Amino acid sequence: MAIVIHDATIVTVDDADTVLHGGAVAVEGSRIAAIGPSAQVLAAYPGAERIDGSGRAVLPGFANTHTHLVLTIARGIYEDLRRYWMVTFDSGSNIGKLYRRQDEIGTPYCVTVDFQSLDDKQVTVRDRDSMQQERVPIADLRFWFEDKLNFY
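Above: the chain's sequence. Below: its structure in token form.
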């Protein structure tokens, strides 16, 4: 069954950054099926469950925002830590390949931000030499590294 959110402000992320006032979004299953003026979308989906979006904004282009949020958190951690140590940011592969690539170049610790990080505000830190993994609160990460990397 389709769901139509109607009479809302629809903020798209198309090439023109279109904003539709009085617009609607039709969703079928987990897929956006249509975006357009409310009357047009409602007419195309007469049996759909209707949700009144009056006074609200809908951002259908952010349907996968959870993925982008994880990368945003990871990038923020990178930006913070790079002020203190030489760090790299790598998100281009699956975790096993990323670990192997970092092991090959001698990276002593890898920090992994995952979907669980969104809930518990922690990251996984992997030690290259022992292969041990530890969950560390994001807020404590710099202090965790200061303790591990204190060579004085």
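The CA atoms of residues 75 and 129 lie 25 Å apart.
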